[in-house]
């Protein structure tokens, strides 16, 4: 019998056991942290509503587990389209070039966005797609109405959009939503395995083919930022404010779109432009940080803001921590349309998980 070997294995078993106990303790501490307890204790109940074509009154009861609990409330009127949480396809293909985005953005957008949506119990799938996969998604116009394509690379792959190809327009017309970031959409068309060159620049004509004329500001002015918060940006606590290739506010109005961003003069940093049964959600400038833009995009998708009419109200609360809950009587500054309204509530704290959404009908 080798006493030294037995002692060695006994010591190893002790170390492994201690490590496992340590991991368990860490998990208990994390799950029992004040932040997690506050998240578990936060809840909202709509106790009564009075929704007419003249006024909108909503009464809420809010329960929470900690004092000085922040809570943002948003309510917006809904249009006629049925509200859904669509499947999300995030374009990420390292073989193709990018422009006006940080090197980590293409993969980082998928990682962060999928994480943001999953932790908030987003109902539909979030999938990373290559250029070939993206083309297959866009060619299937029969399912477009339940899908979102996220292209935050500043360059559209040439198999999707080029001088002779346009898979985006018919897909959007059929109900799909394209989310864009990284400079003017349609300006660049990238080839597999090749760096960008002047031959890949479709220029302003490429943008006009997708969005029409006088929609996006040209020439692009990198680094410019909006400093006036739109009503939707305030309601959803959206922070993306780059306007280098922002959408003109007049164009948003003319096309029945939404200003979701920060305004600078006549342009905004985030805009939704409906086209046919779908539309384009444009982040109008460079993407230096995939984490913060993913938070903004997750809130837009989770809230159903793209189904709004533009009428929005918000409340930014600090709750006292009362054990009996607090009552919020909210008179909205707009009447309720026949399609109803959307009520959204979330904790705006960094890394907070709580997100509530309820569609209220007349």
List keywords for this structure.
362 residues; disordered N terminus; 7-stranded mixed β-sheet; 28% helix; Rossmann fold; 4-stranded antiparallel β-sheet; single chain; 20 strands; Immunoglobulin-like; alpha/beta; 2 domains; 29% strand
Gap between N and C termini:
82 Å
Residue-averaged pLDDT: 89
What's the main sheet like?
A: 7 strands, mixed
Total helix count? 9
Helix coverage percent of residues? 25-40%
Give the assembly state of these chains. Answer: single chain
Which structural class matches the secondary elements? alpha/beta
Please identify the top-level CATH class of the largest domain.
Answer: Alpha Beta
CATH architecture of the largest domain: 3-Layer(aba) Sandwich
What name does CATH use for the topology of the largest domain? Rossmann fold
Q: How many β-strand stretches?
A: 20
Question: Reading side by side through the largest sheet, how are the strands ordered?
Answer: 5-4-6-8-16-15-12
Kindly describe this structure.
By secondary structure, this protein is α/β, with parallel strands linked by helices. Helices cover 28% and strands 29% of the residues. The protein has helices at 3-31, 34-41, 105-119, 131-139, 168-173, 203-211, 231-236, 249-254, 290-303, and strands at 43-51, 56-63, 69-78, 87-91, 126-129, 147-151, 156-157, 177-181, 189-190, 228-229, 247-248, 258-259, 262-264, 267-268, 270-275, 278-283, 308-319, 326-332, 341-346, 355-360. The strands form five sheets. It has a seven-stranded mixed beta sheet. A four-stranded antiparallel beta sheet has the order 17-3-19-20. Helix 3 packs across helix 9.
């Amino acid at each position: 019998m080798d006493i030294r070997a037995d002692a060695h294995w006994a010591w190893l078993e002790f170390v492994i056991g201690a490590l496992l106990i340590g991991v368990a303790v860490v998990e208990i501490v994390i799950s029992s942290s004040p932040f997690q307890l506050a998240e578990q204790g936060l809840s909202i109940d709509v106790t009564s509503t009075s929704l007419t074509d003249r006024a909108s009154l909503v009464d809420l009861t809010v329960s929470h587990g900690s004092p000085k609990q922040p809570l943002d409330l948003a309510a917006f009127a809904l249009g006629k389209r049925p509200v859904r949480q669509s499947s999300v396809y995030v374009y990420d293909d390292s073989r193709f070039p990018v422009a006006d985005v940080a090197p980590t953005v293409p993969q980082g957008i998928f990682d962060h966005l999928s994480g943001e949506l999953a932790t908030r119990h987003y109902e539909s799938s979030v999938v990373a797609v290559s250029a070939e996969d993206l083309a297959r998604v866009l060619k299937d116009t029969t399912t477009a109405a339940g899908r979102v394509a996220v292209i935050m690379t500043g360059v559209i792959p040439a198999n999707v959009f080029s001088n002779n190809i346009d898979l985006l327009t018919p897909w959007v017309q059929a109900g799909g939503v394209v989310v864009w970031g990284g400079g003017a959409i349609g300006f660049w068309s990238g080839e597999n395995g090749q760096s960008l060159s002047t031959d890949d620049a479709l220029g302003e004509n490429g943008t006009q083919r997708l969005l029409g004329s006088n929609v996006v500001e040209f020439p692009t002015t990198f680094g410019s930022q909006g400093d006036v918060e739109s009503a939707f940006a305030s309601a959803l606590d959206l922070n993306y404010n780059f306007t280098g290739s922002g959408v003109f506010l007049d164009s948003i109005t003319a096309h029945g779109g939404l200003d979701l961003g920060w305004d600078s003069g006549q342009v905004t940093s985030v805009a939704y432009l409906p086209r046919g049964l779908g539309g384009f959600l444009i982040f109008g400038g460079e993407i230096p940080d995939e984490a913060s833009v993913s938070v903004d995009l997750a809130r837009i998708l989770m809230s159903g803001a793209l189904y709004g009419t533009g009428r929005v109200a918000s409340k930014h609360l600090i709750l006292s921590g009362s054990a009996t809950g607090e009552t919020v009587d909210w008179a909205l500054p707009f009447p309720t349309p026949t399609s109803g309204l959307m009520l959204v509530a979330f904790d705006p704290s960094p890394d907070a998980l709580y997100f509530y959404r309820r569609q209220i009908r007349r």
